[in-house]
Design a protein that fits this description.
Length: about 475
């Protein structure tokens, strides 16, 4: 079914193309290796593939105590790799934690390796670990004059990274099925000064190799598995419903084509596969935690990463950034070791999804209906799957998708509404101000948004 959707989308978009818009899309992603036990090959990759002898391992305090870390260290020892571990990664990193990681790389070279440079980085963990490793590797190597030089505008300067830049190899090993950071050139962080999320987006940041090993997600707590999986769901739907790449202005040079290009025929393939897989296997992965369902979700996470890493995400993610960065107390969840207020990223994204897609549906009812139909099929509603929909116009697709997401969340026992995080309508102005700077994602919303539209969306999301 989804293959037909891709073909239909391409022919429909051909009619919209103009000389001044971009007729070209491209796929940029890390090399991936998938399979049970793949982590044991990392030492050989470093020694024989990259000629690395001095390595820095990024992880967090929780992952360092788990079997995944033992497997990685055994592999490094067996291959004769000298390594030093940075395990102070902050869950939901901020500018201060990024700077601390950058400083650690400097100390690693001077204190552990006698002034010699490290040869490679290994990041074992979730999106926070992988994003921190990407940013530290970039900043330590390029040494920009100011931390905000490469940060996305308007919070940062958004300066281009020189096209001939070569960073030390980075091997990313995800331990959650959610962010897809092992495939993307994006590193996200909380900006303390503006109380909003921002990041660095450049293909130079892409890991050299992603090791996608289902063994590394078997110890995930049930709620962490659910919230991570909901990030996959939104990555897939947002990238598939994003503003078409053919409606974006053509860049002056192919080297200036943005990482987030808008929905396109290449990304559609990955996004729809990820959505189908997530809709089918996330409820099972949460309930049973069996090897097959966790493996399927990990593969869906990487597939969604390849989809949104080239198409982009839009309003669910744009609105999630102030939701998570402005929260005053930790939401009740399985993130037991976190020492600062947090809303799990996947949860902060999904809470606005029904409101967002009910709003954006009118921009492309068929695309929203395609996503709704996939969710209906996964829950076994053959009548909904076979429903005859209007031929054109209206917002039927967005409303249907919003309802399907609500039913999916009910199955997973995930409540909707921003009020559960302590927010009220009095917080809407601050949440809107935290969303407006997210140009990288809001500009590829299929339906334009400004202050008034965001106010309405946050109000709609307040109770779910």
């Amino acid at each position: 079914m989804w293959k037909r959707a891709v073909v239909n989308c391409v022919s429909r978009r051909d009619k919209r193309r103009y000389v001044s818009t971009d007729r070209i899309c491209e796929l940029a992603a890390s090399n991936l290796r998938f399979g049970v036990g793949a982590t044991r090959e990392v030492g050989i990759d470093l020694r024989d593939g990259f000629g690395a002898r001095r390595v820095v391992v990024f992880t967090d305090p929780t992952i360092r105590k788990l079997p995944s870390m033992n497997v990685l260290e055994e592999s490094l020892h067996e291959s004769g790799i000298h390594y030093v571990v940075y395990d102070d990664v902050r869950v939901e990193p901020n500018d201060a934690s990024f700077k601390d990681a950058i400083e650690f790389l400097r100390r690693a070279e001077t204190e552990h390796y006698g002034g010699r440079p490290y040869d490679a980085i290994v990041a074992l963990g979730g999106g926070s670990v992988m994003d921190t490793a990407k940013a530290a590797n970039l900043y330590h190597t390029m040494k920009p004059n100011d931390f905000y030089d490469y940060v996305n505008p308007p919070i940062g300067k958004g300066l281009p990274i020189p096209t001939n830049s070569k960073l030390p190899p980075l091997i990313a090993i995800p331990t959650t099925a959610g962010t897809g950071s092992e495939t993307t050139g994006v590193a996200i962080f909380d900006d303390s000064a503006t109380k909003s999320k921002t990041g660095i987006a450049n293909r130079t940041l892409k890991p050299t190799l992603g090791i996608v090993d289902p063994n590394n997600t078997l110890t995930l707590p049930e709620r962490v598995a659910v919230y991570s999986g909901l990030d996959v769901l939104c990555h897939a739907i947002e990238s598939y419903t994003a503003l078409p790449s053919t409606e974006r202005a053509r860049p002056a040079s192919p080297l200036l084509r943005p990482a987030y290009q808008g929905s396109n025929p290449i990304s559609d393939i990955w996004s729809l596969y990820a959505l189908e897989t997530c809709a089918t296997y996330l409820p099972r992965a949460a309930k049973d935690a069996d090897e097959e369902s966790r493996a399927k979700m990990l593969l869906a996470s990487s597939a969604a990463g390849m989809g949104f890493g080239n198409a982009g995400v839009h309003l669910c993610h744009g609105m999630s950034y102030p939701i998570s960065s402005q929260v005053k107390s930790t939401y009740d969840c399985d993130y037991k070791t976190v020492d600062h207020p947090i809303v799990p990223h996947g949860l902060s994204v999904i809470v606005s999804a029904p409101a967002v897609f009910a709003f954006t549906g009118v921009a492309d009812p068929d695309r929203h209906a395609t996503c709704a139909r996939i969710l209906a099929k996964a829950r076994g509603d053959d009548r909904a799957v076979a429903a005859v929909l209007p031929q054109s116009g209206g917002d039927y697709g967005g409303k249907w998708l919003a309802d399907e997401i609500r039913m999916f969340l009910e199955t997973l026992k995930v409540p909707l509404g921003l009020e559960q995080f302590g927010y009220s309508n009095s917080d809407i102005p601050s949440l809107v101000q935290g969303t407006l700077p997210q140009h990288r994602v809001t500009k590829i919303s299929p339906r334009p948004v400004g202050q008034s539209e965001l106010e309405n969306l946050f109000e709609a999301a307040m109770k779910g």
